[in-house]
Amino acid sequence: MLTPADLHGLARLAGDGVSGTSRLVEQLHLTILSGAAPVGKAVEGRTRGIPGLVYGSIRGINALVGAGVDALASRVITPTPEGDAWAAREQWLAALNGILGDHLAASGNPLAIPMRFREGGRILTLERDRLEEAFARPSGRLLIAVHGLCMNDLHWGEAGGMPERLGKSLGFSTLHLHYNTGRSIADNGRELADQLEILVEQWPVPVEEIVFLGHSMGGLVARSALAAGAAESQAWVDSVSRMALLGTPHHGAPMERLGHRFETMLGFSPYLAPFMRLGGIRSAGITDLRHGALPAPLADVELFAVAATARTRVGGLLDGAAGDGLVPIDSALGRHNDPERALPIPEDNRLLVPGVGHLGLLKHPAVYRQLRRWLA
């Protein structure tokens, strides 16, 4: 189901696409007119004469149409009511934000997902009285679930999924972070740190402990938030005791590195260089997964790591490079040949689940059982 605000956002995104396509075609046209050699630097600048007039007219008309749509939308569109979590809409919106979220946020597009805590798909207002209404029996122990790239909090499963089950069985109040995964990990980490500072201040009872449960990129965002909070001496950091990270690419994901190499290769020819714009249609969040490097975790925060492999048997020489289809085992378990980059995770705090894909970690019974033992 699409809201009027969604239609407005899609119209603006279409306008951005027209503008970007016209620039790509104009750059290719300029390269052909210049007679550039097949290999060399990209030709910069704008076309002149009639071609320049045509491309300029396209961009001008597109800008006028966009301004008209914005003006109309400002009069017609009303905000989407809080708590409306339509599953289908949530899924495509999460995917769109994962791919283009940094652009959506920078351009003020209404499709950009704002960072919020949610419970049962409903937005939580970080005010003491509103939190008391949302949590009948708030615990001083908080479990913060952070989803991965192109996903949202509903992907954990019905009724809160694994995080909610863990929270209920271990005495935590569970909060799900809902955020724009296309923004850079550092930006999301800083904002999460600031929101946690408010959350702890407004929580109905004194916060005794905070535990993070992160899946995929969510683990990196949680680690980034912890580093940002520590750098700012925020109070909530002292309450963090443990972080359980599922399929998190601590040392990067090969698919993004391949995408970056392909994009770099396009730059060797001025005739292919314009198409780098297409290769560059990857959000800051995605490009951050190239290496996954983050500051070392705080020494007094215990780390747990879960990796998956599509293989049903483990123990071979290639196990470290294999993985769940997206993240290699060694990257997910925090292992690295360079001791400076390896995460301080004891072997007892690592779990490898065979015969499972990246998303399978979210609902796998073996993962739940191990997390329950670790976090008890």
From TrEMBL:
Domain GPI inositol-deacylase PGAP1-like alpha/beta: 180-256
GO molecular function: hydrolase activity, acting on ester bonds
Key word Hydrolase present: yes
Pfam families: PGAP1 (PF07819)
Descriptive protein name: Alpha/beta hydrolase
Gene3D superfamilies: alpha/beta hydrolase
Organism of this sequence: Wenzhouxiangella sediminis
UniProt keywords, alphabetically: Hydrolase
InterPro entries given in the database record: AB_hydrolase_fold, PGAP1-ab_dom-like
Stretch forming the signal peptide: none
